[in-house]
Amino acid sequence: MTKKILVANRGEIACRVIESIKKLGFTAVAVYSEADANARHVRLADEGVAIGPARAAESYLDAEKVVTAARSVGASAIHPGYGFLAENAEFARKCREAGIAFVGPSEQTIRAMGDKHRAREAAIAAGVPVLTGSGKLDPADEKAIENAGAAIGFPVLVKAAGGGGGIGLRPVDDPAKLVAAVQSTSSQAERAFSDPSVYIEKLIRRARHIEVQLFGFGAAGAIHLHHRECSAQRRYQKILEEARPRRLDPAAAEGMLASAVNLAKSVDYQGAGTVEYLYDDETGSFFFMEMNTRLQVEHPVTEMITGTDLVSMQIRQALGEDVSATVTQRSIRDDGHAIEVRICAERPAKQFIPSPGSIDRMVLPAGEGIRVDTGFEQGDRITPFYDSLVMKLVAHGPGRAQAIERLDAALQGTVIEGLETNLAFLQNLVRHPDFIADRLHTKFVEENLPVLV
User: Fold this and answer.
1) How would you classify the pairing of strands 270-280 and 208-217?
2) Which end of the chain has fewer CB atoms at under 10 Å, N or C?
3) What are the pLDDT digits (tens) for 163-203?
4) Are 227 and 245 in contact (CB under 8 A)?
5) Where are the beta strands (DSSP E) in 324-397?
6) CA–CA separation, 396 vs 438, rounded Å?
């Protein structure tokens, strides 16, 4: 009997996972909220199970409902995508106890690496460079907070230990504002992650955001699939990603790859994961930020330069196949350059507020080296209940200049009518002289916002 894989997600990532499930010859099962009853991921799946109201907490974030849905259809495995339950250790445990394979690392690994402070300690133990930082802070102990800030030196970054996706991060320049920043970040973290733990680290203002894609085989080791650059971001939210980054000090580039693999090996990591670093252009130094124990939004750029299917690899391993027998470090290609942009239903001129509505007309670009991952088609509706991502547009070329040219042409050929999007903003970004010259840093978008908007 054909194995069934349930996709515990929605939107473009659910559609992306369903594509790989079908290529593997398995049956794809979608789950959906009332707001997504006729969504594209439901239409693409072989089967669908309703799991509750539009509110994510009562549907996509309800671990018990998702596991019950998987049981009801006899699913062999659950793929969580990214977001929602993807880094929820309790969900991974519930899957295991139900006899259903969780497509991802063990709950112990998620628990260890999902907590940013514990991950930092694991990185230190594995010999990975880290920024000067504090232990977890008690928001009520103002003196301890002030002492920690003074010891590290300003500016600092207040970080939620259980944070992710750019949430729970606050830069602080003024020592007088540190206590309030720690307390407000702790409150936000409690609401967003049910974990009020926070700590602080030294802040590098004009760093680059570099990450390493990993794939772990448990006790059999781990490999890397090269670097990605994610420096084009706004308020710690990524906007554009590239593979591979250029202008890296050769020793630092090799050091990031080696330390990421060592960290994965130190925890017997299984499946796809990413280690993120801050890179100082001036000194060539790099520092561990966090490890994401899931598939990343930006995984397509890695797939484009390596020729791999990360989702397929995840599923095959979760179902018991020894993927390490066929996927080795030597087999990983490094072919050309790829750039991804996130096209969202939002209003850049109004502080990027979401712009939900119906897609009255949609024309997708095509051509050599172009890939589109989307969860929507013409006639679909972007609801206010979930994130505003409409599609990911990826361009691949033999070099960075060709990838930029193809991306620019593809953006010009993309039509979305009926709601506002950030298409024009993205076009301005990829045409900016500093972007073309590869002079990016994490504050680039904010510093150039008036021109880009």
Assistant:
1) antiparallel
2) N
3) 766 778 899 999 999 999 999 999 998 887 778 889 999 98
4) yes
5) 337-344, 346-347, 353-354, 357-358, 361-363, 370-374, 381-382, 389-397
6) 16
Model confidence over 111-149: pLDDT tens digits? 999 888 889 999 999 989 999 999 999 999 999 999 999
**71: preceding bond cis by omega (within 30 degrees):** no
Other beta carbons within 10 angstroms of residue 401's beta carbon come to 12
Tell me the three state secondary structure of residue 161. Answer: strand
Q: Which residues contact 247 (CB under 8 A, 6 or more apart)?
A: 281, 438
The whole-angstrom separation of Cα 86 and Cα 63 is 11
Active site residues: 294
Q: CA–CA distance from 314 to each of 10, 131, 273 (Å)?
A: 18, 31, 10
362: nearest Cα among 347, 354, 374:
374
The pLDDT tens digits for 290-320 are 999 999 999 999 999 999 999 999 999 999 9
Complete domains list, the chain, with CATH: 4-103 (3.40.50.20), 132-202 (3.30.1490.20), 208-452 (3.30.470.20)
